[in-house]
Amino acid sequence: MVENLIPCYRFNLIILSYCVFLSCFFVRSYSLGEVDAYGTFSISSFRYPETRLRPFDSRYFRVDLPPWFSSLSIVLESDVDLDARSIAKVPESALPLICLRDGSLPLPQVTNAFVKGLVLGSFSNGSSNELEDIQNEEQCYPMQKNISVKLTNEQISPGAWYLGFFNGVGAIRTQSKMIIRGPSYSFTANISVEGCTTSTMWGQYCNQNSFDSPCHGNGEIKVFFLDVLGIAEQLIIMAMNVTFSMTQSNNTLNAGGANIVCFARHGAMPSEILHDYSGDISNGPLIVDSPKVGRWYITIIPVNLSKELGETRNAGIQVCYSLEWQVLECPMGKAGLNCKWERYILQTVIRKETLFESYYIPVSEKVPSDSAAFPLEPLLSNSSYDEGQDNTWTYFLLDIPRGAAGGSIHIQLTSDTKIKHEIYAKSGGLPSLQSWDYYYANRTNNSVGSMFFKLYNSSEEKVDFYILYVREGTWGFGIRHVNTSKSETVMSVSLERCPKRCSSHGQCRNAFDASGLTLYSFCACDRDHGGFDCSVELVSHRGHVQQSVALIASNAAALLPAYQALRQKAFAEWVLFTASGISSGLYHACDVGTWCALSFNVLQFMDFWLSFMAVVSTFIYLTTIDEALKRTIHTVVAILTAMMAITKATRSSNIILVISIGAAGLLIGLLVELSTKFRSFSLRFGFCMNMVDRQQTIMEWLRNFMKTILRRFRWGFVLVGFAALAMAAISWKLETSQSYWIWHSIWHVSIYTSSFFFLCSKVSSLNSENQRPLDGTYELTRQDSMPRGDSEGRERPEVLTI
Question: Residue ranges of the EGF-like domain (predicted)?
Answer without folding.
Answer: 523-534
